[in-house]
């Protein structure tokens, strides 16, 4: 799976966030949290992202799987 800028992602620790910056599919700046009380911006590497759950989330939100794969 290919992560796009502003795509919602699921981290392996269960948190969800928005990939606000994408660095060559190896690193990401991710905004996490759901209110001003717990918002945070973190750096995550590709290994920190649960790709299966991220793809399931994308399918739920968009009704289809992405048409391209992450190599």
Which terms summarize this structure?
71 residues
Overview of the molecule:
- This protein has 71 residues and is an alpha+beta fold.
- Helices cover 17% and strands 32% of the residues.
- It is built from 1 helix and 4 strands, in the order ββββα.
- The protein has one helix at residues 51-62; strands at residues 8-10, 16-23, 27-32, 40-45.
- β2 and β3 form a beta hairpin.
- The mean pLDDT is 90.
What does the largest sheet look like?
A: 4 strands, antiparallel
**How many extended strands?**
4
- Average pLDDT for all residues: 90
Strand coverage percent: 25-35%
Question: Helical residue percent?
Answer: 10-25%
Helical segment tally? 1
Question: Which class of secondary structure composition applies to the elements?
Answer: alpha+beta
- Write down the Rg: 12 Å
For the terminal residues, how far apart are their CA atoms? 8 Å
Which regions have little confidence, pLDDT < 50, spanning 5+ residues?
none
How are the strands of the biggest sheet laid out side by side?
1-2-3-4
Order of helices and strands: EEEEH
Report the principal-axis shape: globular
């Amino acid at each position: 799976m290919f992560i796009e800028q502003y795509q919602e992602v699921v981290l392996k620790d269960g948190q969800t966030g928005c990939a606000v910056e994408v660095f060559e599919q190896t690193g990401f700046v991710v905004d996490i949290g759901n209110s001003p009380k717990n918002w945070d911006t973190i750096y995550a590497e590709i290994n920190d992202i649960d790709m299966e759950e991220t793809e399931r989330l994308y399918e739920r939100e968009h009704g289809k799987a992405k048409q391209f794969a992450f190599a």
